[in-house]
Amino acid sequence: MTSDSAGRTSSNLEPMLRATDVAKRYGGVRALRGVDFEIRAGEVHGLVGENGAGKSTLIKVLAGAETPDTGTVTVDGKTLRLGDTQASLAAGISTVYQEPHLFGELTVAENIFVGRELTTRGRVRWAEQREQVAQLLEQIGLDPNLARRNVADLPVGEQQLISIAKAFATEVKILILDEPSAILADRDIDTLFEVVRRMRASGVGVIYISHRLDELGQITDRITVMRDGSVVTTRPTHELNPRKIAELMVGHELERLSVERKTVSEEVVLDIHGLAAGKSMKDVSLQLRKGEILGVYGLIGSGTSDLARAMFGIVPSTAGEIKVNGTTAVLRSPADAAAAGFAMVPGNRKSEGVFLNKSLAFNISASHLRYFSKAGLAFDAKRERATTLELMKKLRVKAPAPETRIGALSGGNQQKVVMARQLVESPSVLILEEPTQGVDVGAKDEIHRLVLELAAEGTSSVVISTDLEEIRTLSDRIIVLHQGRVGHEFPGDTSTAALLAAASGATDVDADADRAIPAPRITEGES
Amino acid sequence: MSTVTQEKAPRPVPRLRRTPIIEGQEAVLIAVLVIVGVLLAVFTDTFMTSANIQTVLYTVAPIAIIGVGMTAVMVTAGIDVSVGSQMAIAMVVVGKLLRDTDLGWFPALVVAVVVGSILGIINGLLIVVGRIHPMIITFGTLNVYRYVALQIFGDQQVSGVPDDLGFIGGSVQAVTFGIPNALLLAMALMVIMWAYMRQWAGGRHLYAIGGDPGAARLTGIQVNRKLISVYVLIGVLVGIASLVQVGSGGLIQQNVGIGLELQVIAACVIGGTSVLGGRGTVFGTLLGALLVGTVSSAVTHLGWPNELTNLFVGIFIIVAVGIDLVRQKRRTKL
Asked: Which of A65, A103, A509 sits opposite B212 (nearest CB)?
């Protein structure tokens, strides 16, 4: 898989960028404890670590967005002035952050040239800029007509590719990609990999940060693993595999998830028949039994998110019926859904899930104010605290106290709190939408274990995810949606190949289809 | 046999679009202005007289001049509500100097500009260093500057100001080609600013800062310097606008400039400048100022009660902001 890249790296061993003994402290937290790190010309260097391991701080130091307390960085032997974004840019270090840092009201061409416009006495040479950008876009496989469009009018995946194009347009020596694939659809990931390979071929050193460990195997030459503000190891990619990387990240061997599960009972908790809602869900029927975990998989636009939102009363259903424990439920609002026994962990934690400025206890009790009040009036703070503590223990939330502000916690711990909120009143059906998106390997494992434990205790869950491994790890059964309908139903241990085929519309899929066949984009990636 | 058909959802074909010189909202404003003008010409015989038109245009001039700066400030996602108090200081200083010394118009201009830029620098530094929302900072300085102005007034209004600045004042002589010189000055400033914000890199950076200040900093734009400069710019323009106000001389009262910020912000918002930053043109602001001026005059000439002006301006603001928000919302849904 990585033979060609391994051959390439041995040809040029002199590092282009070298960071020595970089340390940074935020108050009492030691974000970096004397890190040594280097990048060679023409290599793709994976940088991994759990949230809080120090990756972001390290790349901010390289980009000049943070000033380290100690340490030096040299580029081509020359010492870099630290804490100055201009100096880093001038030295050829370009960073593409996770969220596209683009200006919505400016055109793509303007965005690519912003800060270093082609000007005559201050006046922008529009035609020339547009021409160059059109060429650049063409070169990396994007539509050259995009140059004239306002960025705010483009879908987010395209915006991400534009920010990479922006880095490509500068005299870049070192390109830092911070989780570039996190918000990309599969076909955009192919484009991304293509762009990264072209950059490597032209001698750029690429730092590639990703939580998707399988990607690292496809695209990187070497991988540096960080933990607790230190570098654990830097090794050629071919010496590592996703499991090994994950173990280095968390610092101990991962146990295989093994939770004692009773067999699922026959009692049907949720019965959906012919449901249609939103723009893309046309006709979905499913049944969920007590203690069962049902996986729902589908490509973007197949109706999976409409299904989640219809079950939680966010979008009204236009046809069909939802029965909970045998009674028909009419869900016009999330309040209706909660009353019917649904609980939902939404996909977009930041915008739908948490009150970042509020305490853990507040976040947990927020949707249960009646439950936490005495005689329906006075709020019972003691009970709130006790319940919060109990749930924190159960979910292994790493936080000092129920009063801790949730924004101070890592993504994984925040997600656990969001789940804890849903468990306060023991729901009949737990809807989990992308439950581990953006959380690190360790927390992902714990969240999975928790879902399995809840199922063992009799909670029924619907897991809607685009992470196939997650779906396969958790689900007793999997339904695949295609164009708003249930395309197929599979047992939980179905191969990824079969699930992908069904999601893209194949009609005669064998659940036991050859498991050696990896996902299509992996094969495309190496061709 | 597997029938996996790789269905690629069609990529939306991008629509080619040049940034038009006159944008949608501006075209609508021109249309509204024309309609109001025609209606007034038909229903009154006092509105469409050159004297009245000149009065309206002269009233609009200071708002348009300050609007040039306010547009730049609002495009960076800021705001300056202290302009009224700034104007009070500039006017009382210039007025007293004109009256008590033999100051010519040019030294008066220099004084007004210096006073304005000092007040602007104070606002800009507090906003950048304190990292506090401009609304709060300038709300603070609105009160502080008003106190300073009142101290300079002493306990009486300034009367007997000579008309050294009459050529940009409101008199019938201060008119070229039927347009008050004050408005011509405003239009000249607008053309310069329009070109700068549309064509010059430095001007485009204002939009970048308003869109995402963090990202702007990362692309190497000197965000703080730029932000201070727009507050200085608005201070300078307040200085110039106060010359227009002092223009015909006479009396300067202590309550001068109270509520001015609301008129200027109304002109910007009605002209399509987004309260969220990143969007707006000085041309739109001029149209916004003209519309407010016209409507206010129209109410008088139709013999309607004055408070109707407030109602109309309020409706215009809500409609303009509503259009902006709907537009933003539609975009985030993409």
From this structure: A103
DSSP assignment string, A327-347: EE---SSHHHHHHHTEEEE-S
Q: Are strands A93-96 and A174-178 parallel, antiparallel or unpaired?
A: parallel
Which residues on adjacent β-strands are paired with residue A461?
Answer: A293, A430
Read off the DSSP letter of residue A351: I
A260: enclosing H helix or E strand = none
Three-class SS state of B48: coil
For A60, the closest chain B residue by CA position comes to B218
Interface of A with B (CB under 8 A): 63, 65, 85-86, 89, 95, 97, 101-107, 110, 114-117, 119, 122-124, 143, 145-146, 148-150, 152-155, 187, 301, 501, 504-509
* Interface with chain B: mutation pick from A93, A111, A117, A123, highest number of B CBs within 10 Å: A123
Residues spanned by the domain of B51: 47-321
Residue B41 lies in a domain: no
Residue B171 lies in a domain: yes
Of B2, B220, B278, the CB nearest to A501: B2
Which residues, in sequence order, are bridge partners of residue A119?
A: A124
**Contact residues on chain A for B326, CB-CB shorter than 8 A:** none
- Predicted pLDDT of residue A263: 65
Residue in A closest to B2 by C-alpha? A508
- Name residues whose C-beta falls within 8 Å of residue A317's C-beta, 6 or more positions apart in sequence: A275, A276, A277, A310, A331
Residue with tokens 């960025």: A151
Instruction: Please tell me the distance from the alpha carbon of residue A458 to that of residue A452, in angstroms, as a whole number.
Output: 10
pLDDT in tens, A176-203: 998 877 667 666 777 788 888 888 888 8
Minimal CA separation from A510 to chain B, in Å: 9
Does B244 map to a domain? yes
Distance CA A278, CA A315 (A): 6
Does B206 map to a domain? yes
Residue A335 burial (10 A CB sphere; 0-12, 13-18, 19+)? exposed
Q: Is B234:B69 a contact under the CB 8 Å cutoff?
A: yes
Query: What does the pLDDT look like over A307-334, one tens digit per residue?
Result: 888 888 888 888 888 888 888 888 888 8
How many residue contacts between A and B have a Cβ separation below 8 Å?
103
Q: Which value does ipTM take for this structure? A: 0.76
Would the pTM of this model clear 0.80, i.e. be above it? no
**Dist. CA B241–CA B62, nearest whole Å:** 5
CATH number, domain containing residue B194: 1.10.3470
Paired tokens of B322: 């509503």
Contacts of A257 (CB under 8 A, 6+ apart): A445, A448, A449, A452, A473
In this structure, the dihedral spanned by the alpha carbons of residues A180, A183, A186 and A189, taken in order and rounded to 10 degrees, is: -20
- pLDDT of A486-516, one tens digit each? 888 888 777 777 777 777 766 666 555 443 3
Handedness of CA A401, A402, A408, A412 (dihedral sign): positive
Is A122 in contact with B217 (Cβ distance < 8 A)? no
Whether residues B201 and A117 touch (CB distance < 8 A) is answered with yes
- Burial environment of residue A140 by CB neighbours within 10 A (0 to 12, 13 to 18, 19 or more): middle
All structural domains of chain A: 7-92+171-250 (3.40.50.300), 260-341+427-527 (3.40.50.300), 355-426 (no CATH)
Contact B219 A115 (CB under 8 A): yes
Q: Considering CB atoms only, which of B8, B204, B334 is closest to A106?
A: B204
* Cβ neighbours of A150 in B, within 8 Å: 17
* pLDDT(A525) > 50: no
**Which chain B positions have a beta carbon within 8 Å of A97's beta carbon?**
218
* Amino acid present at B165: L
